[in-house]
Design a protein that fits this description.
With 445 residues, this protein is an alpha/beta fold. The protein is built from 14 helices and 13 strands. Helix 3 runs antiparallel to helix 11, helix 4 runs parallel beside helix 11 and helix 12 packs parallel to helix 14. The protein is globular and about 60 Å long. It binds pyridoxal-5'-phosphate (PLP). Pyridoxal-5'-phosphate (PLP) binds next to helix 5.
């Protein structure tokens, strides 16, 4: 690792810790999306002390408004939501782990089935990658077929990454680019086949040339379904007795009370939920039709901390509040407004943007070879105004109109400078006070 002389003089506490972290924690963090170099190398505060609503305090006590990843999508109801934390405190007082089971998991399972009446049974896990791996195991058990067709991102497990064994670029267009796979069992080659979103013909081809047992896909992320895509996938999987799994880890609770598939009126055979389900507490769910879920009893799926009580209690309270305030409507309305305002800015400044994503997860890229430089510049300038911001926003119910207006006032002046840089043909690097951010998440430009 390269350390500049005397860099300790200008680095903030978080950046100093980040350097320490990289020495003792390979990769520096357990979650790629929290790598500070994805935002603003050398300056991103990197570590937090406390949170509330959409505010984060860093280790130096500086308060920031989070208009970026909001806990990587976990906190639709805002950080440190009083009622959810209260439900968790109650569990801490009574006991989190015991030899006996907790009743909260039954209540949560019943609630999820009530919200998704096509499903009959539920299993719980604590991370999205685990939930997807569980769903795939159950689907393979149910069909007796090993091969899987995939679309979208589904975590770090071997079954998913194996799609890159035949070609290291197979997963490049599925959220994360350049996923490295050393250590993934080579004999899993040709067990997972990636298809592009909205490319039904590609899926049909995969299904006709391989004995596919399950299709695992996100309902929608950066693109909306076109030409009856979801309906066609459903019909094909039904005809071929293939288990259809919707990974709703990220899309769940953003546009409906539950899965995004409710909006499109397409019911899968299984669905997984995570991220926002516990509003910041670890809980993921796999729900499914009885005909598939019964196969859990033919295989071994079991883990100690899947039974801890905080996750289910947090999820029960989160669902209660979501239902009461209709949080999915609040965040989608704010997000559609954000998208409109980005488009307006792009027209005013004549800067071409590619705006995409669910309304509650809006994102843009500059249609320009300097996209990453401009993205870094945005984080740099917003940080000076005590905002954490980049080119995408995971919206929460605390992102009110006033805050969004302040965000756009700042963004307007940033776009002025970006346009000047574009027009003067000067090096985009000159806008930056430190290195350009690293790229990992898919970006075309
Ligand atoms: C659709 C989807 N599936 C699975 C995962 C993996 O979840 P986790 O990071 O909790 O393992 C993610 C995470 O971003 C996701 O977006």
């Amino acid at each position: 690792m390269h350390i500049n002389r005397n860099e300790g003089l200008y680095l903030n506490k978080g950046q100093k810790l980040w350097r320490r972290a990289k020495r003792i924690i390979p990769g520096g963090t357990m979650l790629f999306s929290k790598n500070p170099d994805l935002f603003l190398p050398n300056f991103w505060p990197a570590y937090f002390e406390k949170t509330k609503g959409c505010n984060i305090w860093d280790l130096e006590g500086k308060k920031y408004l989070d208009l970026s990843m909001m806990g990587i999508g976990t906190n639709i109801l805002g950080y440190s939501r009083r009622e959810v934390d209260g439900a968790v405190r109650n569990i801490i007082d009574k006991g989190n782990m015991a030899t006996l089971n907790s009743k909260e998991e039954i209540l949560l399972a019943e609630k999820l089935v009530q919200m998704h009446p096509w499903a009959g049974q539920v299993r719980f896990a604590r991370t999205g990658g685990e939930a997807a791996a569980i769903a795939v195991r159950i689907a393979r058990a149910a069909t007796g077929r090993d091969k899987i067709a995939i679309c979208g991102y589904h975590g770090w497990h071997d079954w998913y990454l194996s799609a890159n064994l035949s070609n290291s670029k197979n997963l490049d267009s599925h959220l994360m680019k350049n996923l490295l796979i050393q250590g993934v069992q080579k004999n899993l080659k040709n067990s997972a086949f990636a298809f592009e979103y909205n490319n039904f013909n590609q899926l049909k081809q995969i299904v006709s040339s391989h004995d596919i047992g399950a299709v695992v896909m996100e309902v929608s992320r950066n693109e909306i379904p076109k030409n009856n895509f979801l309906d066609n996938v459903r019909k094909l999987t039904k005809n071929k007795n293939i288990v259809l799994i919707f990974d709703e880890c990220t899309s769940g609770f953003r546009e409906t009370f539950g899965g995004l598939h409710i909006k499109y009126k397409i019911n899968p055979d299984m669905a997984t939920f995570g991220k926002a389900l516990g509003n910041g507490y670890a809980i993921n769910a796999v729900i499914g039709r009885n005909s598939v879920m019964n196969y859990v009893n033919s295989t071994f799926i079991s883990s100690t901390f899947w039974t801890e009580r905080i996750g289910s209690a947090a999820a029960l309270k989160t669902l209660e509040i979501m239902e009461k305030i209709k949080s999915w409507k609040i965040i989608s309305n704010i997000g559609s407004d954000v998208k409109k305002k980005w488009l307006q800015l792009s027209k005013i400044h004549n800067i071409k943007l590619d705006i995409k994503g669910l309304d509650a997860l809006p994102k843009f890229d500059f249609v320009n070879k300097n996209n990453l430089y401009y993205k870094t510049y945005i984080s740099q300038e917003f940080l000076k105004k005590n905002f954490l911001a980049s080119n995408s926003i995971y919206l929460c119910v605390n992102h009110n109109k006033n805050l969004i207006n302040r965000y756009f006032d700042i963004l307007d002046s940033i776009f002025v400078k970006i346009k000047q840089s574009m027009e003067s043909n000067s090096d985009a690097e000159k806008l930056l006070e430190g290195p350009v951010c690293i790229s990992g998440i898919r970006s075309k430009y």
